[in-house]
Amino acid sequence: MNKSLKIVLLLLILLQAGPLAAQKFGYIDSEYILNKHPDYKVIQDELLKLSTEWKKEAQSLDQEIKELYTQLKAEEVLLTEEMYQQRLAEIKAKEKASQEFNSRIFGIEGQYYQKQAELLQPLQSKIYDAIERVSRRNNLAVLFDKAAGPSAIIYTDPRHDYSEFVLEELGIEENN
């Protein structure tokens, strides 16, 4: 009885461990997928256009500040101390406004990054849905992103790269 109980227990353990050994793993390269998606190029172009406009505006503010400093330096001998300090205070206020502009536009939660998130969100959702469908279709337990950093993936076997399946799921043909 003791021996048969051990055998039954061993069989139960093996049956429980069986599905664990059968788990499939794979990886994708989200950067590769994004660069292949035509909508990403449109988004990048729009962001570049916006960023160029904002950078020009920031450069214009900086140029205006430089000109004010040059003008102050040229008129320094003609100004009273009070007038000099007043103009210097005006320049400092413009510098502060310029820094606030840069922070508001290009800061961590600035308009540029908000616009980027707004434009990329629908595309990222579409890609995530395709990744989920590919994972379910291929019975993958875990799917890593090779482009996510810092990555713990040291080596990847191309046989386990599902990036092309995701592109296929998105309806993107291989052009290269």
Automatic annotation (TrEMBL):
Record-given protein name: OmpH family outer membrane protein
Protein keywords: Coiled coil, Signal
Gene Ontology BP terms: protein stabilization
GO molecular function: unfolded protein binding
Family label: Belongs to the Skp family.
InterPro entries with a match to the protein in the record: Chaperone_Skp, Skp_dom_sf
Gene3D superfamilies, sorted: Skp domain (3.30.910.20)
GO cellular component: cytosol
Pfam family of the protein (one): OmpH
Coiled coil stretches, renumbered: 51-78
Leader sequence residues: 1-22
